[in-house]
Amino acid sequence: MNKNFDVIVIGGGPAGYIAAIRASQYGLSVACIDEWKNRDGSNSFGGTCLNAGCIPSKALLESSELFHRASHEFPEHGININTPVIDIKAMQKRKNDIVKQLTGGVAGLLKVNKIEALVGHGKFMGLNQVEFTDSKGNVNTLQGKHIVLASGSSPIELKAIPFDDKRIVDSWGALDFTEVPSSLAVVGAGVIGLELGSVWGRLGSEVEIFEASPDFLSLVDRDVAKEAKTQFNKLGLNIHLDAKVTAANKTESSINLTYIKDNEKIEKEFDRVVVAVGRKPHTDNLFSMDSGITLDESGCINVDKQCQTSIPNVYAIGDCVRGPMLAHKGSEEGVMVAEIIAGDIAELNYDIIPSVIYTSPEIAWAGKNELELKNADIEYKVGLFPFAASGRAITMEQTSGMVKMISSKENDQILGVHIIGPMAGELIGEVVLAMEFEASSEDIQRTIHAHPSLSEAIHEASLAVDKRALNYPNKK
Ligand code: FAD
Ligand code: NAI
């Protein structure tokens, strides 16, 4: 076993494996250590994202969306089939096969790039040393000129509602249900709560979501959050705001959940409970206490703008450092640090990281929202275009939502775009690119968009910024 490397990456999720690949593209010798264990005891690279996050959740969102549409929208199209039936075993097999295909793909990419893929635990010991413990418990000390920590994050557990991995579960558990829960309580109306609540709700579960905060989707533009709440209620997601769950008592066949709402203590029975109240950086046994690595008050590894820790040759990226816990943010940090290690100049534009919530309708945004601009005393213009006026959305039977574009009053530069509606997660790409090039709303106004397409809603919202939308009345 080779023990000397230019770069040792600890963590093989979307941050770590991308850093390893980019470093190897420079001809550097690279090891990538990962300890992910699947339920069947097997190992796979890809981290939370591929094994228990982005990918399996999107597979189930797709299946459940198709089931929902077949049940509720097909008759409108003149398609008459018998009442659709969901085969959960087949749905889960499809999801597991997709995960296998993609994690296998990562293993293949590491191999092709001649990266030493090491299965086991990595621990930074200070200076250039990493202690590697393989799955059999053998310990080896590796030397790395540069070290990248990419250990990811793990779900936060609530003391009042401890996980039992069967009926009170985290997001991974909720991705693996083998039957549709008759009723499902979701604690936390954040991204995971809404996505997984949607999956099981569409498949027939009675879903109630308990959110401790009085605000719904506090990071999202207020107009978009308001529209989202209306749409989710229509779809049967019962969202309780300002509701504090204080206990979960298990009975033989159900879980008795106690929550406080409007000063009233309420008890309710549920078949299953998913706790999705955020994730915390995963740094257990990742570095020795005298290594020089430090954590901030939320447990993230302290890094500068270029992801360098307090030690010059050690970097940290992805969910274990500050910033949004998103796969694409971690991957781009991986690219940046690999380029810096190789001697190139690299930086990341943290102001324009797209966010997507894969509910129906989808929610996507980039840049600042109105509240943030108001608080910063920045003058702005707003253009709104509803999907109800989009020919393409009407033909798709998906007319809920809107595009909201915000640009600077001073020079028209686009400051933020907020979308709720069909394919919002795809549509946001255009505006992220535009914002990266510091485009104005006029630049989008003068760009030809295909007809009929959902992207015309972006075009019309840009026109609406200057009150000249063509397919919707402009507000005086
Ligand atoms: P991880 O993916 O967590 O990978 C870290 C890896 O390091 C793991 O394999 C871990 O086992 C390993 N590791 C940790 N410590 C050690 C050690 N000491 N030695 C060896 N190995 C170690 N983000 C999006 O952008 N889009 C989405 O649609 C999306 N959906 C999500 C859905 C769910 C249900 C969840 C839970 C998350 C979702 N996320 C999504 C978030 C996304 O999964 C994370 O932001 C992303 O995985 C972070 O990447 P990472 O490489 O930093 O960490
Ligand atoms: P989150 O931070 O999105 O939401 C957690 C919610 O739980 C918040 O609304 C919070 O107010 C609430 N909460 C906290 N404590 C509570 C309590 N005791 N009782 C009730 N509610 C409580 O975190 P979530 O949904 O767990 O997701 C974790 C991370 O994973 C997110 O930060 C996100 O970045 C990432 N993710 C991204 C996805 C995407 O990009 N589509 C999908 C899923 C996850």
Notes on the protein architecture:
The protein is α/β, with parallel strands linked by helices and 476 residues long. It has three domains: 4-154 and 280-348, FAD/NAD(P)-binding domain, CATH 3.50.50.60; 168-277, FAD/NAD(P)-binding domain, CATH 3.50.50; 352-465, FAD/NAD-linked reductase, C-terminal dimerisation domain (Enolase-like, domain 1), CATH 3.30.390. It is built from 13 helices and 21 strands. It has helices at 16-25, 47-52, 54-72, 88-112, 171-175, 191-202, 222-234, 327-341, 370-375, 391-395, 424-436, 441-445, 456-465, and strands at residues 4-10, 30-34, 116-126, 129-134, 139-149, 153-155, 168-169, 183-187, 206-210, 238-240, 244-250, 255-261, 264-270, 272-275, 279-281, 314-316, 355-357, 362-367, 380-386, 402-408, 414-421. α7 (222-234) links the parallel β9 (206-210) and β10. α3 (54-72) packs antiparallel against α4 and α3 (54-72) packs across α6.
Fold blueprint:
Elements: E1 4-10, H1 16-25, E2 30-34, H2 47-52, H3 54-72, H4 88-112, E3 116-126, E4 129-134, E5 139-149, E6 153-155, E7 168-169, H5 171-175, E8 183-187, H6 191-202, E9 206-210, H7 222-234, E10 238-240, E11 244-250, E12 255-261, E13 264-270, E14 272-275, E15 279-281, E16 314-316, H8 327-341, E17 355-357, E18 362-367, H9 370-375, E19 380-386, H10 391-395, E20 402-408, E21 414-421, H11 424-436, H12 441-445, H13 456-465
Parallel strand pairs: 1-2, 1-5, 2-3, 5-16, 7-14, 8-9, 8-14, 9-10
Antiparallel strand pairs: 3-4, 4-5, 6-15, 11-12, 12-13, 17-18, 18-21, 19-20, 20-21
Helix pairs in contact: 1-8, 3-4, 3-6
The structure holds flavin-adenine dinucleotide and 1,4-dihydronicotinamide adenine dinucleotide.
1,4-dihydronicotinamide adenine dinucleotide binds next to α6 and β17.
